[in-house]
Amino acid sequence: MEQVNSPSTHTGAIKFSSAANAVLGLWLIVCSWIVGYSLTGMLWDNIIVGAVVLILAVTRLSARTRAGVPSWLNALLGAWLIIAPFVISTYDAGERWNSIIVGILVVVFSLASGTAGATRRTTT
Questions:
Q1: What is the DSSP string of 58-91?
Q2: pTM given for the model
Q3: I need a surface site. Which of 25, 56, 69, 77 has the fewest CB within 10 A?
């Protein structure tokens, strides 16, 4: 017998992953002052990317869309966070590692949220 898993089966994963990304987006906004970023470019990059990550995560969390588009866009932003320190040429190791680690986490949570809403067919 063939079953189709409903999207509601994965609601917990979507909510957890989206909430985690919302927290990471908020962290990106405030970490610039907590960490004390030395380069204006990295400061504004984190504020802007953090705000967009936060907005997309809250959009996905609020279930205003069943599509995983906000999650996939956040995955792209996470990838940007990983490469941004090298493109913007930050020399502070703390700034670099913060961006890379947060970027990896955003990608992981975004992929978890984006794939959780996919309908899967299983055979029983």
A1: HHHHTTS-SSSHHHHHHHHHHHHHHHHHHHTT--
A2: 0.82
A3: 69
Cα dihedral sign, 83-84-88-92: negative
Report whether 10 contacts 116 (CB < 8 A).
Answer: yes
Angle between helix 11-31 and 93-116 (nearest 10) = 160
122 phi/psi in degrees, rounded to 5: -125, 150
